Amino acid sequence: MLEIKEVKNGIEENGFHAINNFLSDKELNLIRDEVEFLFSKNLIHGHGFSVYINPRRQEIPQAPSRIKSINLFEKSLDIMEILQKVDPEKYKNIRLAHMAIYKENKNPEWLRWHSDVRNGELTRCQIVLRGGQEKSGAFVYIPGSNKIDDIPYRPSKEYLLNNKDKMVMMNKPNGTAFIINTDGYHSRVPVETERISIMMDFVDKDYIKNNANDLGSNLVISFHQLTKRILDNINYFKIDINPNAFIANSSDNYRFNQKLGGYYMFILKPLYIIKSFLGKTEDY
Length: 284
Ligand SMILES: [Fe+2]
What we know:
This protein has 284 residues and is α+β, with helices and mostly antiparallel strands. The protein has a single domain, classed as Sandwich (Jelly Rolls). Helix content is 29%, strand content 21%. The protein has helices at residues 4-14, 25-39, 63-66, 72-86, 157-162, 205-210, 228-232, 251-257, 264-277, and strands spanning 16-19, 51-54, 57-59, 94-107, 123-130, 139-141, 168-169, 177-181, 186-188, 191-204. The strands form 2 sheets. The chain has a 7-stranded antiparallel sheet. It has a 3-stranded antiparallel sheet with strand order 7-6-9, with no helix packed on it. The radius of gyration is 18 Å and the shape is globular. The protein binds fe (ii) ion. Fe (ii) ion binds at residues 114, 116, 182, 186, 283-284.
């Protein structure tokens, strides 16, 4: 039984909360099979397979609409309904702004510690399907850093050192839903094997309107996903997307930046190896 009080306390005090067994074992196994098949090939093999965002990270274009075993839009609705119970005022106009499925392949580097710096406007839900453990990219967070006013994008070395013991690793079983305030400092540990995760971003509808180039990925919903529940709650998915906005997480990104589809990694891999020697990492 989900205790809303606990979720509220976790999000507000620590900056995150874990909802155990958000996906049942059966759901987890079904979606893993589907997702692993889609990641096993890339776009040069046909529509719907993965693209390489960089040689270490793959994404399935319009992933939520490709998944058949679970209605991921209903899952996002579950999260939005929880958030509205947590804080009815703050989340009254909550919208699903973006959803994606990522695969990280062997990445020996930590993600750089950072804040997403969006003044509490973005609530993220991350569900790990594979990996996400101590040696496979577990998400890490500094509890309470969500409460720092005007938080700098990157924490100082001193801050990280002083808060070393507070860092929490979210290495919970796959299928757990982590609700995260990405204003707080977060990172992920190196991925020795692989990590596959679903990322859902939620914001107020006015945020998307006022920040056209930030979030809002114009998601595709498949016919079979338009269930009665989705249709009854269609407003949660109605966002004011500016068709001329260029959003990194949208399909525009593939159109303009990922022209080489699956070949991308083979060409850029040598550059990435050099980049890791220079100690340059990425964040998201
Ligand atoms: Fe981030």
